[in-house]
TrEMBL record:
Keyword Cytoplasm: no
Annotated keywords: Hydrolase, Signal
Database matches in InterPro entries: AB_hydrolase_1, AB_hydrolase_fold, Sec-Metab_Biosynth_Hydrolase
Signal peptide bounds: 1-29
Domain AB hydrolase-1, chain residue ranges per copy: 43-268
Organism: Streptomyces sulfonofaciens
Protein name: Alpha/beta hydrolase
Single GO molecular function: hydrolase activity
Source organism phylogeny: Bacteria, Bacillati, Actinomycetota, Actinomycetes, Kitasatosporales
Length: 283
């Protein structure tokens, strides 16, 4: 006769085996969760510095209403190599064609993460960096005049940003860069939206590690993957001339609009339309 105690121990052991087996098969099971439909690619949205995945909310609403599967994984903003490697791993969990969208620093991330991934059928740059091999975001931001990120090019930290040192539990540390609250509305929104909304966005911004802006890019995915580019003509962070330069170099399908740096926030309809153009071409 099996005692109640023996039964409980046996049940726990069986549960442990089931969990162990489940964990070994988890990686292969993940892709099915992100399988795309037969008619539309999955749209992956990648945020840049001083924002977060929520900045895509207006775009996500519009794309989902049109039947697209949309995901916006967070960008850690720790370093270009780490950020792009993480995204590359995430993309491998998605079955079927992908339209990969990056805004600002997120453009650098998708440029590196998509290289070698045959499921990525289109790259979409929204007021974004599209670096060539060896280039950094900091270099491209300063390639043409017009950025409001600093009024002192010789300063070690751009004057529109605050440098905040941090220490981790193991004793290592670094420096995070935050956009100054009183500069946020001008830098990202070009004075658009009301002060209250701009203050909320500034308060919830995700900082970027200082080193990330100086990290050099690897081989760019736009060499082999078709790209689309929104040049924001009223961008106060990346000069519009720099955006036009990067778009032309990548042979991107380019749209110019009277939008600020955070076009996905102020003009989600324009951004959605460009993503749809890429999605239809990628299908």
């Amino acid at each position: 006769m099996i005692s109640r105690r023996t039964f409980r121990v046996s049940a726990l052991a069986a549960t442990g085996v089931a969990i162990a087996v489940g964990m070994t098969t988890f990686a292969s099971a993940v892709p099915s969760r992100y399988a795309t439909s037969d008619t539309k690619p999955t749209v992956v949205l990648v945020n840049g510095a001083w924002s977060d995945s929520a900045s895509w909310s207006g775009v996500i609403d519009r794309l989902q209403s049109k039947g697209y599967t949309v995901t916006a994984p967070p960008t850690a903003l720790r370093g270009l190599s780490d950020d792009s490697t993480y995204l590359a791993s995430y993309l491998k969990t998605i079955q079927g064609p992908i339209v990969l969208v990056g805004q600002s620093y997120g453009g650098s991330v998708i440029t590196n993460a998509a290289t070698g991934n045959t499921n990525v059928k289109a790259l979409v740059y929204i007021s974004a960096f599209a670096p060539d091999k060896g280039e950094s975001a900091a270099q491209l931001a300063g390639k043409f005049p017009g950025s409001h990120i600093t009024d002192d090019p010789t300063a070690p930290v751009p004057t529109a940003l605050n440098a905040v040192p941090y220490t981790l539990a193991d004793g290592t540390g670094g420096v995070d860069l935050y956009a100054k609250a009183d500069k946020y509305r001008d830098l990202f929104l070009s004075g658009r939206l009301d002060d209250k909304t701009a203050a909320e966005l500034a308060a919830t911004q995700n900082p970027i590690a200082l080193q990330a802006l100086g990290d050099p890019s690897g081989v760019p995915a736009w060499l082999t993957i078709p790209s689309w580019y929104l040049v924001s003509k009223d961008d106060h962070l990346i000069p519009p001339a720099a955006e036009s330069f990067m778009a032309a170099r990548a042979h991107s399908h380019t749209v110019e609009a009277d939008t600020p740096h955070a076009a996905q926030v102020t003009d989600p309809g324009i951004v959605t339309n460009l993503i749809e153009q890429a999605a239809k071409a990628a299908h």
